[in-house]
Amino acid sequence: MDMQLQDKTVIVTAGSKGLGKAIATAFAEERAVVYISSRNETNLKQAVKEIKQKTGNNSVSYVVCDMKDPQAIKQMIHSILDQRKTIDVLINNAGGPPAGSFLEMNDEYWYHAFELNLLSFIRTIRAVVPQMQQQQAGHIVNVASSSIKQALDNLVLSNTMRPGIVGLSKTLAQELSQDNILINTVGPGSVKTDRILDLNRKQAGKLGVSEEEVMNKAEAQIPMKRYGRPEEFAKAILFLASASNTYITGQSLIVDGGLIKSL
Description:
Belongs to the short-chain dehydrogenases/reductases (SDR) family. Pfam families: adh_short_C2 (PF13561). This is 3-oxoacyl-[acyl-carrier-protein] reductase FabG. It comes from Virgibacillus massiliensis. It contains eight helices and seven strands. The chain is α/β, with parallel strands linked by helices. Helix 1 runs parallel beside helix 2. It has two domains: 9-190 and 229-255, NAD(P)-binding Rossmann-like Domain (Rossmann fold, 3-Layer(aba) Sandwich); 192-227, no CATH class. The chain has a seven-stranded parallel β-sheet, with helices on both faces.
């Protein structure tokens, strides 16, 4: 299937590690012009180097951007538009909020999760939509979590903020479809990233068991009996953000190996 992404301008936020890096790599393999962002320039430089080496695509660049800073987001978008004149695809991604129960989370945790995991998506979309409206085309994919379908234990911040992304995407699908801008939400289940391994580590410490035991128990609950790979998750994003998707908008997809049982 030809995704028709060659020379298309793609932004992947939080693209230096984990799912973001896997997504950026998938677009680079399709010969897109890819921009990744994060706060850490060292990590960005290394990610760009590795993506170029793996894909042979030299049209991969980075922009340092703190997604909690509205001015930084505006500057990132303006900088890319100055170089490319058009933005075809926006992949909104952000690191997951801290694990913990309700009473463990003070206002600082809540404000941080709101700014990083919901408001940053709003700000980035607001910055790219006018240009997408001008060209009468665009794809936006918001990366969330399986908590958009089912509340996850000990992840109250994610369970609260991530469903807000679904409401945002559903609303914007209604407002922007007339401009041929398609927007969807994709949530990873147990995809093997540093975040999942960190959550396993904390769970193992709390239970007094090994990390391997926690992982084995988690994988046993997945119908496919294994964690997903980041590149598998990236394939779903790639399709929804490509020219192959011409009619899917306002939808929420979970990539989880069948783990979540809600309808």
